[in-house]
Amino acid sequence: MANKLIRNRITIFIACHNPELVTGGRHFLILICFMLFGVGIARPQSREVGTANNQNITALNIGDQIPDALWNTPLQVVNHPQDKKNITLADYKGKLIILDFWSTWCGTCVAALPRLHELEKEFKDDVIILPMTDQKANEIKAFLKKNRVLSRLNLFSVTDDNTYKFHFPYTMLPHEVWISKSGEVQAITHSSDVTKENITSALKGNANSIAQKKDNLTYDDTRPLLLNNNGADGDFFVSRSIITLAIEGIPRSNALPKVNEKESTFRVLSTNADIRRMYELAFRELLTMPPNRTKLELKEPFSVSEKRFLQDKYCYEWIAPLSVLKHFPQKVQADLNYHFGINGRMEKRNTKCYTIKIIGKTTIIPNKPEDGLQYLSAWVNKTNKDIQHIPVVNDFTDQKIAIPKIAHVIEDVEAVNRQLKPFGIAIVEDERVLDFFVISEL
């Protein structure tokens, strides 16, 4: 599932071997193009059908014959050696024609032009490599003149293409379409596959040996990857983390990593949980830490922070390779921190608190408390649920000590102690170093 994406690779092409080639002579500028399989990225076109001049155009595939109408479609050109303003594909019938779709913003395209030009000269009797772009004539003419390397080559190019790009749609540039001497689409490749060896094979009718370029024509770079299978199937990922709003109709959960041995992945999941609860995935101490040891130290009013982090619900999921399983707490913390723009962390702090002191004989209840009584530990837990209440520390959680049913909010320590005294218990103001979960500005 997730590891299928490993089949793909992303290459970064840095045109530093000849900066002036892609900068028009500005040596201090290095153009970096991000490419999939070593090519620049163009805007998506439909593989099934394109639209030009209000006419539907069906895409041509390998094995298709070039239609007569396309042979005779006028093509606007600049820098033609015979000063022609227009040409047709028919002008080159009987040769191997390679349409080189390119653009000035595509560093790989520009870098390839001199090499393709040299190959065309080597096979001049049998091959024409025809640069073709949908950019405007004045833009291309200025670029070819300004670029110090290209200006010396006297290159010409088709411009203003609004037809061929629909017959041969692409998502990535450069895009090479090979048309045989008999007018058949022989191959569709990357510019790197336009080599002396491959041209020789194509001229001998062996184009099947040439690696074919496969553009994903349904990909839309304005939409999230894999959403509704954009770019690839929804499960085509190596690692994925997402945060959503609460999802109605699914249970509330907070699941530690679950391993999928078959796919060599694991999954961390929290659904319909408040933010503090989601941090339990990163900090297991939070599972038993009282709510009032959460510090909301943000610029906004406390009531706003309390709603955001202790009441509003979200879902979080992370799926990743087993190789990073040991790092899952740090990853969860980072995801939550950066998504919500906060710094959620554990800290030890010296703080004022209340502690329990034994001052006499206590009442131990082995079973259910009698009417009018409650467990000391239950009262402490309820008191500590109030996030604004001073922490109450109970060092006697292993004992079933009974106390009377008193309010869980300590407003008057002396009044509370008068009620507790008959049970051998007292509340004492103290100061201790305690663990806190702190949420502050990022």
Descriptive account of the structure:
The protein is of the alpha+beta class. The chain is 21% helix and 30% strand. The protein is built from 12 helices and 24 strands. The strands form 8 sheets. It has a 4-stranded mixed sheet, covered by helices on one side. The chain has a 4-stranded antiparallel sheet with strand order 14-18-16-15. β6 (75-78) and β7 form a beta hairpin. The chain is rod-shaped.
Biggest sheet statistics: 4 strands, mixed
Q: What is the radius of gyration? A: 35 Å
Helicity range = 10-25%
**Tally of alpha and pi helices:** 12
Low-confidence spans? 1-49
Based on Cα principal axes, name the global outline: rod-shaped
Query: Count the strands?
Result: 24
Question: What is the structural class?
Answer: alpha+beta
Mean pLDDT: 86
| Widest β-sheet, arrangement of strands | 9-8-12-13
Head-to-tail CA distance between termini: 35 Å
Query: What percentage of the residues does DSSP assign to strands (E)?
Result: 25-35%
